[in-house]
Amino acid sequence: MITLLVILGVVILLILWAIGVYNSLIGKRNRVDNSWSQIDVQLKRRHDLIPNLVETVKGYAKHERETLEKVIQARNVAAQAKTVGEASKAEGQLSQALMNLFAVAEAYPDLKANQNFMQLQEELVSTENKVGFARQYYNDEVMTYNTAIQTIPNNIIAGFGKFEKREFFEIEVKEERQAPKVQF
After folding, report:
1. How confident is the model at residue 183 (pLDDT cuts 50, 70, 90)?
2. Tell me: the pLDDT tens digits for 121-162?
3. Spatial contact of 47 and 74, defined as CB atoms under 8 Å apart
4. Range of the domain at 28
5. How many other C-beta atoms lie within 10 A of the C-beta of residue 30?
6. Is 43 inside any structural domain?
7. What backbone phi and psi angles, to 5 degrees, belong to 107?
8. Which of 18, 22, 61, 170 has its CA 20 to 30 A from that of 178?
9. Is residue 1 part of a domain?
10. Does 11 score more than 90 pLDDT?
11. Model confidence at 174, in pLDDT bands (50, 70, 90)?
12. What is the tally of structural domains in the chain?
């Protein structure tokens, strides 16, 4: 009788442990989803600012149509990205296109002095910082989640619960990985 109670107690403890692990993995997965939605909010803000910035530049830099078209094209691709990998790649290309746009703006002193352009540029830089912080938070949550579902014995429960590894939000454009060159 005592052996049966001990076995029953161990089984109950294992069930409670499995429920605890499962609930913990659900919480981690939800934090990953929430952190991605925070990135998505900032990317949406970025995508909304870009057309206004392009329109402002168009008024001054009529000869730079190709650069402006590349920015709009990159923005549209980024806005349509479905997965984290697609978004990472598209956002890297959009960042590159925006850097080219700001380089064009340097050639137009009147544009650089335009209050609307300066405000849009400042908002975009602020949004870029927010995207960076959100991306870091997302990657931290992904690392915590991926570690939790891959470690023993959590991986057993993760396998039964169909918890899948998540992608990091990584920079795809090689130029963004390199430190900028400063020359005097």
Report:
1. very low
2. 888 888 888 988 999 999 999 999 999 999 999 999 999 999
3. no
4. 13-170
5. 12
6. yes
7. -80, -5
8. 61
9. no
10. yes
11. low
12. 1
